[in-house]
Amino acid sequence: MVVYAGQGDARRSMALLWRTAGTGEIRPGPKPGLSVDLIVDTAITVADTDGMAALSMRAVGERLGRTGMALYTYVPSKSELVDLMYDRVLGELPSDYEHEAGWRTALTSWARDTWAFYLRHPWVLQVSQARPVLGPNEYVTLETVVRILRATGLGATVLRRVVGMLFNFVRGAAQTVAESRQAPTATGVSDDEWWLTRSATLLEIAPDFADRFPMVTWLENITAEPPQDDSLPYLEREARKTFEVSLTVLLDGIEATVNRTPASVNPLHVQQA
Q1: Which domain holds residue 22?
Q2: Mean of all residue pLDDT scores within the chain
């Protein structure tokens, strides 16, 4: 399920996101007043608990003891609500990292924090990145990463692409874990059951698998590990290892790019000379 941001009225959505024209006030009524913030926080709870597919104005209204129609005075539609939810949860992310230990240490902390954030709110991964929300917290997250990478001395053109690469990497890595967590409930089949059934069937149907795919077989055999006493499911444990190794490789690549950038472009080389 992919949800596209910015589907509601542009002016109204932006006013709500940036809290202009008194959009977040509490209004009187026969029951305790509602507010945009209360509605958004409740919608986040619905999405965290039951997933994006369960999100509706009616579902949020029921949690608040109201009808779905009662919410439209504050939030025009579900489209604007998703924008507000997305930007609001981004506010959980740290925005200030210590730079004394260098950009690499700061960027590692940012990546791990962002990975954990996505797993706390897996529905966020269903909000497409093709069209940004353009909310204040979204810009804070971008500002945070650019500030860290600015210390590398990379030129703006390269730095812009590196920022995009990092967001895509962390988001994609977290999505693998989020989907593996959701798979047993969505399919009714556990990971262990799925793999045992499919693996046995594959060997039966393709007994010459090792001959046909020698490199894959070699890689699987050489990286095989004995069972571990770990509370995490196998796929999630493997995804976490992949995340850490891949993050190191990406940071190595950024560092190599920094080191080969001419001194006229990268002032860090001038300082080190």
Answers
A1: 10-90
A2: 89
